[in-house]
Amino acid sequence: MVAIARTDLDVFPLCLGGNVFGWTADEPTSRDVLDAFTEAGGDFVDTANSYLVEHGQSETIIGRWLADRGNRDEIVVATKVGGGRGAVRSLSAATIEQEAHASLERLRTDRIDLYYAHFDDESTPLEETLRAFDALVRAGSVRYLGASNYTPDRLTAALRFQRDNGLAEFTVLQPHYNLVERDFERTLLPVVEEWDLAVAPYFALAKGFLTGKYRPGADAVESPRAEGARAYLDRDGEAVLTALDEVAAAHDTTQAAVALAWLRARPGVVAPIASARGTDQLAQIMPAGTLTLTPAEVDRLTATTQVASRT
């Protein structure tokens, strides 16, 4: 387990993404994945009010599973507000209060362990948004707060306002970050280090590219993300795959586990987020929770995209 700084949360160092639940994984399959995840030691699940086909469908599936298994106290549940389209993509006080209570109902729980601002909302005054989040924490509906998809300047402004006004602070950042997409390191990492934020990266496997199944000439299983995954082959992707293959072979594990373990070794990262459309995919990522790479292996992987990350 790993402790999330400035909270009393200890989590398995791999977070199960619920974005596929109700989308590419139907409810029975989603429940199988959740069962297998917890049986293997996992306890950290990430979802959002906007996932996916129907509003809150992922939360609904997770909520039914929690109720049936009676294991709510054993699971750290993270969800989000401010994603989706139209009026839902708002961080107004009214939207935050309404959507938080809707999420609580769908999740069949009385509290959200970690509640993220899914996307920044510059049309709503920052003070209004942050005071609304603070009210949820004070009411006990939310335990801790997180942010996602903020610019460095806006995130810093939010953190400073929270601290200056004695409000509940963002303690976790969920950025877009993986071995082949490393803008986070030059943009948001300085904010993370200054404010002691924990990092839970999304798109940790680069739309599946870092699983190793998308290769030149390979007949990979088609998925909604396949085209995007193959695009990484044009960004030194073959060098990345070669390095993943070598490190995975040395540990007798999967390329996906190695890519996630690389993230775990990066500054500030506590638990990369990865999803699984079935228990077979889950088996590919679970070793990442216990896999420790050598410093030389971390450097080998880092070097494959080091130049690209600075451009």
UniProtKB/TrEMBL annotation:
GO terms for molecular function: oxidoreductase activity. The keyword Magnesium does not apply. One of its GO terms (cellular component) is cytosol. Residues 13-303 form the NADP-dependent oxidoreductase domain. Pfam families: Aldo_ket_red. InterPro entries: AKR, AKR_Detox_Biosynth, NAD(P)_OxRdtase_dom_sf, NADP_OxRdtase_dom. Coiled coil: none annotated. Keywords: Oxidoreductase. This is Aryl-alcohol dehydrogenase-like predicted oxidoreductase.
